[in-house]
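User: Before I run my own analysis I want an independent prediction to cross-check against. Here's the chain; please return only the structure tokens and, at the end, one sentence I can use as a sanity check.
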Amino acid sequence: TRWYTVVVCGNIKNTEPLDSKRQRVHSFWVTAFDCGKNRAQADAQVIVTVKPSCKPGWIGWTKRTEYTPGSGSIPLFPNLHLEACEETVWNIQATVELQTGHIGKGCDRDSYSDRSVRRLCGAVRGEVDLLPPPSPATNWTAVLPTLPSSDSSLVFSFNGSTHVAVVPDSVASAVSGDHFTLQLWMRRGGASTQPPANQARGTRKEEETIICSTVKNDDSYSHYSLSVHGCRLSLFYWPDVSAARPVKFLWKLEQVCDSEWHHLSLSVQFPSVTLYVDGVTSDPALIHDNGAIPNPAPHQRLVIGACWGNLTIKDLSNSSIITIVPLVTHLQFVWLLSGVTVRPGNVEPHSVVECLYACREGLDFGDLETLGSGMKVHVNPSQSVLVLEGDDIESFNRAVQQVTYRNSLRFATPGVRPLKLTTSLRCFSEESCLSLRQLEGYLVVLQPDAPQISLSGVGPHLARPAAEFEGPQGVPLFPELRIVCSLSHAVNTAAQGMEGGALMSDAVAHTLDGCEVQPLGEELNQEREELLIDMEALKERGLDIINTTAYIAITGAESISVYEDVLRSIRYRLAKGSARFERRFRLSCSEMNGRYTSNELTLEVNFLHSLDSLYHPSHLLASQQQFLHPSHHTGELSGHTLPNPHRNSVVPGAATVIIMVCVGFLVVMVILGVFRIRSIHRRGEGARGGSKEGSNQWDDSALTIIVNPMETYENRMGIATDMEGECDDEEEVVDSPDDTSDDQRIIIKKEGRDSAPRRY
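Assistant: Structure tokens:
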């Protein structure tokens, strides 16, 4: 007997398309028959597994990601992983880009003023602001147009012709010497990006000068200018215009070619020059001698936005026309500038420069310790670009899920930040390597909870004797001031088994950057009144002050406790004899460069006058004269003050004297009425008593004089009172001698013509 092994071959065909989502596994049995229709001893089981269709790419991508300010760092791709469809790859590179160019100056930064940021970063003091806010004292920036900025900073536009800033000599002389640090924010493409009208097509583009300065040293003049030529930044430095030859430092930078904000910090310690662009050091590409160039004129001058040439500029400091000897060419500047400062002396440390530029938001990696072997992470200085590189897909997926977004600002700038993810793969077989499309999404920073800055502890009225205000130290206006900053946020009460919602207010530690005390109505009269503040204490704390007759502004980023101490020390002092009856002040504070403001605290100061001064004859006469001449004091009579054409000016004591005289007159009339009633009553009792007891009658042979105690007052006030015969010189008053209750009458009885009077 021979046994044969029969192998059955055949095809299995489906009649309907297989779908892994509907049924992943199909199982059935196959029975074989030979040619004699003999059945095989055993059936064969067939299992068909339907694999899902594989699409290489990123799985779990979320297009929208929300960020709540104050959350710290959040993962951007918590569920993202790469599917390679069993393709063997040996290198994976992913680039995450966060676009923040539209937020402030390139990213979200501290919204404090440039001076406050320098102080917070530990920079050396002594910088000079070359582009300050326009004011009567700093009028050289008044001709420059300003543009709005989301970070509350002041942005100036330059066109190289009419929009040019000429810094006064008094300011330029403070930045002399060959050791200085120049810092500024700049962006190409200002109000006008067109070339000058006199520039023909095809001609070489001229240099655009940022700042041009000739300063006077001890016994010589030095000259420097910072300009842009194409994508190159150049510093032209002349140590001594009368002897030394000029040197030019060149840097080839991509940052000067785009239209984004960039921070430049140029430290000159001749012959050493260091440039920081966005916090990163950049070495000069070329240093060379410029050969024979005409010497600049030995005149001190500092111009921003242009340099010497055929340029006629009106100097706002003395209303004159500047005539400058030509040096090189007509170099005009068409850009935006902000925060241009120069500090003479030693250069700034690198750590300070990095702090001044540092972004408070950006991309970050969660935990470097969890980074797998063979993985690399690169982050640019502005933290807007993060690059991941690796060779293992599993390790790469874990690394991608560790990419985070952080924002250290408690009050982050709300808005949309676009996100991009670009991936490149390298395979062993370049022909069949995968190609992944770019993913785009966006990060939404939600509106932060606005802080409530509350000023309290000061009553609506402050009453003190006028003599205290006239003292050498005056009177403190806000001795018990309290400043509290709190955040109100929603509380999920449903999770706690409560119905509805609630708001909870948490007191937090904040940094204020300004407070203002303003007199309401008339400005302070320097001859009569002033606000006193300890200038040394402000200087020690690094705070700045603007003291005018219209307001006092204290600026600088500091803690709430420091501002409380400073505001409590503000005193109000009056000159001798200039006390009035009221004065009103308003106090307000702000933070984040005025982004959030406090409530306005109004204080009414009342001056208490003594009664002796009110009843003094000369004072009363003066008050009456002032009140009776309305041509000198116009306006409405409000409260107990009488304002003149200058608001809050009053006639001292006039209204009070009138009120007191009227009340006194009323009291006198009441006393006289009571006196007359009692006199009539006693006279009737005397008449009845005389009919019964004739022996008790007084001897009326002598002269009796009755003196009215109110006669002197009535004569002085010009009041004529009809006594109806009571004060007749020949009339006698019949009273009971034992009635001593009326102690207000003085009776003088005259026994004879020559006898002395007698008092009872």
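Sanity check: DSSP finds eleven helices and 46 strands in the chain.
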